[in-house]
Every structure is written in structure tokens, then in C-alpha cells.
Specification:
InterPro entries: Phytyl_CoA_dOase-like. α2 links the parallel β3 and β4. It is built from eleven helices and twelve strands. The relative contact order is 0.19. With about 325 residues, the chain is an alpha+beta fold.
Length: about 325
């Protein structure tokens, strides 16, 4: 049975998705519209943010070559080497689904602001990064902020991550259509070269145009097949940019000695709660050194989504007294 037909029968694919479904003599028929041979567009970091976001929306992903300069990539790598070595792989919780998503031989380094001066001074202050966030989120939705930033290191022998969509972190996502404003952007930046063999991120082209419906249980991206996904190898410093809807996964690491190391930075509309509680994680002495733009990105300032009178608020003098800056 065609995969698109299985999706439609389970109520996962909507009529406005890339799969066209209809009934002929009482029989449900579908014509898949996925282009599994798609080539994702490539840009330099100096490219127009509008062109970058247009490509990301149209294809589900795009690649920004040299998003981090070689020098910044080198310094970031140096900053995170010791903290990564001190981490144990795997997920500490008891939920088997989260353990599977995390990966048995995968490390995730959180709280990058505390671990890397390069990250907090250079990467989150980068003009190109903020220009893309403004184009993809800020223009239509007002302020944006950082949901999370991790370095994900997939160790040798790791299985592929389950297929998933990042928007599933917030339940309203399931009631939003492909034509609604984007709620998040994920910057997946290679800290070292990623290859098909060591677990390069895999993306299902066109899956961002699917419409989901149901009760949540049937809205799983795992309904896709791994053969639908396309691996996207990256050179160190390159960025794979995706949104909330595209189905993707970390690939299997089929090597015996190579670690796939990627930094993921998820930026969301400020009407959504971030995944990482940055103001509770970052030492006050470190937070005090952040630029105003970085403070806002990390939740130290009031944010104003479109149509809002302001969120994360409090009298300015009280915030200054509590935070010490």
C-alpha cells in the first residue's frame, strides 16, 4: 500500500497537504506529492534573509554555508570539549520514548551560555542570525526568543533518532495549518563535519506542507518511513535551517570512531514558553555581561509578541534589583 494512502486512511494527512486524496466509487485514493529527490538550496551567510526563509519554507529546509566562521567554530569546539567529556550519554529519565529520542549513546550539552564565552558573546549576537530570525518570525509575530540551545553528540554505533517534528513541543501546533505563521526556527549547526556515515541530519522534503488532524496520538511523525528521509551532510560551520513542521531525525552513526557533533538552536515566537529556563540556569555574574540583545533572547527582558501588551513583565526597577543589572 502506498505510504501516502496509509497516512490518509489514518487521518494524518489533510487535503491541504502535499498529498492529494479523493474518493472514486467509494474508494479512497491518494497521489503523493513529495519530491524525495529534492536538493535543498544553499546560501552564504551574506545572502538575503528573505531568500533564505523563502527557500526554507518552500523546501522544508535550506543550508547556510559558513554560518559560523572557521575561527568561531574552532573556539566553540574548544569551549565545549571538556563539558562534553564530563557528560554521560543517554537520557536520565524513565520515559522510554524520551530515552529513544535522546539516544542511548548520545550526549546533549545544555546551558551553552555558561559553558562557552564564544556562544554567549559571538554566536547569539550575530547580525546574520538575528536577521534570519526577524525575517522568519519577527516580521509577522513580534518578538522572538531562544527556546533551547544544545550541542548534540551522537556516538559511534547509535541508531537513527525517531522521526519527529520540533513543533510538537507545544500542543497548539497540532491545530495549526501549513499556511499559518511559522512558530519556530531551528538552526542546526555542524560543530564538526557531519556525514551520512556518522549521523548527518535527515529531512523529509515537503513534509512541512502536511496538515495534521486527530487527537494527538495519531499525529506522530513516526508514521513516516525512514526511507523517505534525505541525509544532509554539513561541513563544520554550516547550518541546516528548518522550521516547526518538517519531519526529520538525527541519522544513525554507522562508524566505530566518529562522533557527530551538531549545535541546535531553536528560536520561537515569544508567545511560546522556552524549553530551557535560561534565567534559572545562567549564573548572575555571567548574565550581567550579556549584551541587551542577548539578554532579551535569553529571557532577561520583557517581550512583546504581535498584539500583546507585553509578556514576562514586571516593574523595571524590581527586575533590575532582583537581577542586579
Amino acid at each position: 500500500m502506498p505510504h501516502a494512502l496509509r497516512l490518509a486512511q489514518r487521518g494524518i494527512v489533510g487535503l491541504e497537504g502535499v498529498t492529494r486524496c479523493g474518493r472514486l466509487n467509494g474508494i479512497l485514493s491518494c497521489r503523493p506529492g513529495l519530491n524525495l529527490d529534492a536538493r535543498f538550496s544553499r546560501f552564504s551567510r551574506a545572502a538575503s534573509p528573505r531568500d533564505i526563509i523563502t527557500a526554507q519554507k518552500g523546501d522544508g529546509a535550506c543550508i547556510i554555508e559558513g554560518f559560523l566562521t572557521p575561527e568561531i567554530t574552532k573556539r566553540l569546539n574548544k569551549d565545549i570539549t571538556a563539558p562534553l567529556l564530563n557528560l554521560r550519554p543517554g537520557h536520565r529519565g524513565t520515559d522510554p520514548d524520551l530515552q529513544d529520542l535522546h539516544g542511548e549513546n548520545t550526549k546533549r550539552l545544555y546551558n551553552l551560555a555558561s559553558h562557552s564565552r564564544t556562544w554567549r558573546e559571538d554566536i547569539i549576537n550575530d547580525d546574520a542570525f538575528h536577521a534570519i530570525c526577524h525575517e522568519g518570525l519577527g516580521k509577522r509575530q513580534g518578538d522572538y526568543w531562544l527556546s533551547m540551545a544544545h550541542v548534540i553528540e551522537i556516538g559511534p554505533g547509535s541508531r537513527a533518532q525517531p522521526l519527529h517534528v520540533d513543533g510538537a513541543q507545544w500542543w497548539p501546533f497540532w491545530n495549526m495549518s501549513p499556511g499559518d505563521p511559522e512558530i519556530m526556527l531551528n538552526f542546526l549547526v555542524a560543530v564538526e563535519d557531519t556525514t551520512v556515515e556518522n549521523g548527518a541530519t535527515r529531512v523529509i522534503p515537503g513534509s512541512q506542507r502536511l496538515s495534521y488532524r486527530g487527537d494527538g496520538e495519531e499525529q506522530s511523525a513516526a508514521s513516516w518511513e525512514e526511507d523517505d528521509a534525505v541525509a544532509v551532510p554539513l561541513k563544520a560551520g554550516d547550518c541546516l535551517l528548518i522550521g516547526s513542521r518538517v519531519v526529520h531525525q538525527g541519522g544513525a552513526n554507522m562508524t566505530t570512531d566518529s562522533h557527530r557533533k551538531v549545535m541546535t538552536m531553536t528560536v520561537v515566537s515569544s508567545c511560546f514558553t522556552p524549553e530551557e529556563a535560561f534565567p534559572l540556569l545562567i549564573e548572575r555574574e555571567v548574565a550581567r555581561t550579556l549584551s541587551d540583545r542577548a539578554k532579551k533572547l535569553l529571557g532577561y527582558k520583557e517581550v512583546t509578541p504581535f498584539g500583546s501588551a507585553g509578556l514576562w513583565t514586571g516593574p523595571a526597577e524590581d527586575r533590575a534589583k532582583v537581577l542586579g543589572f
